[in-house]
Write a structure and sequence with these properties.
Elements: H1 12-28, E1 36-39, E2 46-48, H2 68-71, H3 79-94, E3 104-106, H4 108-115, E4 121-125, H5 129-138, E5 145-148, H6 155-159, E6 167-171, H7 180-194, E7 199-205, H8 209-220, E8 227-233, E9 245-251, H9 257-271, E10 279-286
Parallel strand pairs: 1-4, 1-6, 4-5, 6-7
Antiparallel strand pairs: 2-3, 7-9, 8-9, 8-10
């Protein structure tokens, strides 16, 4: 596996993804009944930001100062982002950081676990054995958390529908394979057949617009329920920045989530801009 998320942990893409994940969890928690949180590409779950500057063989520029670092001391965070930053700070302290600058950053499994109520259950899939072992150790064999060493694309077929009959599925792959988008669409199609009301959150990088539009076409061919497209760019289309933005497709978003997401992304577009031309986007791919 070439991708090592700890080099990118806490960057602008993580800020966007994890802040929105928090609002999705909150939206589902408006109902008392619990739900399954399924993470198809969970990684190791938590990251030491000091390792981001080390690289495998050479020093590298860490990305978190342009992400969570920009929000860390802001006194003017809007409500949803304030809750997200408070959650990251809580995790950082609980992992043993006595300093004022961020050091320990939670991946999506820990974001979900810190927000989960007793009636929620987490299943975390990671096919890389070393990463899966670190994930399992990190959760200390928590009885409410099940770690599976498996290909996450097989998880919707294997695990849906859950006993709870409600689910939030995060699909956040490393985008190393040429057929990544096709595999996502197939997994989503299988998941919706098994649990039509499931909430899917699908993260993707903004590197080639044509590939993203083709992916949307594959998704729309599934005859989707209400679906939102959310994007955040930190530089314009002519920028030399390698990954100038990212997006999140949300299928079956909770009530009022679109308004929360729009407000957060508009604020982040200003706060996280790296060059001119960055923007936020929130539109319905399939209207409510």
């Amino acid at each position: 596996m070439n991708y090592r998320h700890h080099f990118h942990a806490g960057n602008f893409a993580d800020v966007m993804k994890h802040a929105l994940l928090g609002r999705l969890v909150a939206g589902l928690q408006r109902k008392e009944k619990g739900f399954l949180y399924l993470d198809t590409h969970a990684g190791r779950g938590s990251y030491d930001l000091t390792a981001a500057a080390q690289g495998d063989t050479l020093a590298r520029q860490p990305e978190h100062p342009q992400g969570i670092g920009r929000l860390w001391g802001r006194p003017d965070l809007p409500e949803g982002l304030a809750e997200y930053v408070a959650l990251v700070k809580r995790f950082d302290r609980e992992q043993g950081n006595p300093g004022e600058a961020p050091r320990f950053y939670p991946g999506s499994p820990w974001i979900a676990r810190l927000l989960a109520r007793p009636q929620e259950r987490l299943v975390l899939c990671e096919k890389q054995p070393a990463e899966s072992e670190l994930l399992d150790i990190g959760f200390g064999r928590d009885p409410r958390v099940k770690v599976l060493t498996m290909d996450g694309y097989a998880a919707p077929r294997a695990l849906l529908p859950p006993p709870e009959r409600r689910a939030l599925i995060l699909i956040d792959p490393p985008f190393e394979a040429q057929d990544e988008f096709a595999r996502i669409a197939a997994a989503v199609g299988e998941g919706l057949r098994r649990l039509p009301g499931a909430v899917f959150a699908i993260w993707y990088p903004l590197t080639e617009r044509a590939r993203v539009e083709a992916f949307f076409g594959e998704l729309l061919a599934l005859k989707l329920p209400p679906t939102l497209e959310l994007e955040l760019t930190v530089a314009g289309e002519q920028s030399a920045v390698k990954m100038r933005g990212c997006g999140l497709v949300v299928i079956n978003p909770p009530w009022q989530f679109d308004g929360e997401a729009r407000r957060m992304l508009d604020w982040l577009a200003d706060a996280l801009a790296q060059e001119a031309g960055g923007r936020a986007k929130c539109r319905w791919l399939v209207p409510e």
